Amino acid sequence: MRPDIPHGVDRAATLTLIQMALAEDLGLGGDITSASTIPEGVQFTANLVARHDMVVAGLGLAGLVFKTVDETTDWQSTVEDGASVKTGTILATVSGPARNLLTAERTALNLLQHLSGIATLTRQYVDAVAGTGAAILDTRKTLPAYRELAKYAARMGGATNHRMRLDDMVLIKDNHIAVAGGMAQAIQGAKNAGHRPIEVECDTLAQVREALAEGVDAILLDNMNLDQLHEAVALIGDQARTEASGGVTLKTVRAIASTGVKTISVGRITQSAPAVDIGLDWNPEKR
After folding, report:
1. Do both 193 and 95 map to the same domain?
2. Active site members
3. Domain co-membership, 113 together with 186
4. What whole-number distance in Å separates Cα of residue 82 and Cα of residue 104?
5. In whole angstroms, what separates CA 267 from the centre of its chain?
6. Which long-range contacts (CB under 8 A, 24 or more apart) does 204-211 make?
7. How many separate domains does the chain show?
């Protein structure tokens, strides 16, 4: 994986994020530990090593962080984002001035561990519904400023991106319905504004029937039990895309998929995926 921003991710926004992350870590005085303990000019080679099984995402970004701190950094990697790797796999080897590489280490690993954590958890959900015909969707539950990267990591794990932003599509939820004065009014308002596709959140079968009567493109079946999901899917048929959401876990996702829903949105894959453990291990043979 070459040190660069992944395809499909906003370049300018990501470069800004990297610069902000480095500035946050450096402070005003810089890396005083590396500067005071390591003689200038000392070279350093290290391996980025997977501490457990994982799905990789953000490896090129990690390389870019090292190159941003010191453009003379040598980065070697044959691993690609989206790859499933085993414990002990060397993801990349990085060489260059020791001070600069150690200055970049934490920011590079933070990005790589966070994004690989998202990809790893996402892959577990994707594998859990394999063969059911249901697709896993991510959500907008992401850390501020990490939206594009988090959704990129979800794609590397095998998920399909839902809305990237509020301007991507209309998704009418319970609060929209309440404030608009009803589901029909909310749907009609979106149609009058010329928006399609339109998705509407339904908590009950009665709401599903109302949404179908108004003619929508997708129905979000929110927090329904399995019996309700079975009935809702049968009721909707091919009239709209079905999406299940709410309380989805690795223990429940396959049963939800088996109801026949076409998609399942999982907030926790971007909201609370645990970071994976990746080490930067000094390679004494390459001093």
Report:
1. no
2. 106, 141, 173, 201, 222
3. no
4. 23
5. 10
6. 205/231, 205/232, 205/235, 207/183, 208/232, 208/235, 208/236, 209/235, 210/183, 210/184, 211/183, 211/187, 211/240
7. 2
For CA atoms 263, 244, 208, 228, the dihedral sign is positive
Tell whether 210 and 235 lie within a shared domain: yes
- β-sheet bridge partners, residue 171: 199
d(CA 226, CA 4): 44
Global model pTM greater than 0.85: yes
Domain residues for 217? 160-265
Q: What are the tens digits of pLDDT across the range 272-284?
A: 999 999 999 988 7
List the CATH number of the domain containing 244. 3.20.20.70
Tell me: the pLDDT tens digits for 187-209? 999 999 999 999 999 999 999 99
CA distance 63 to 74: 9
Task: Report whether 73 contacts 106 (CB < 8 A).
Answer: no
Question: Which secondary-structure segment (H or E) carries 241?
Answer: strand 241-245
Looking at the structure, tell me whether residues 175 and 238 fall in a common domain: yes
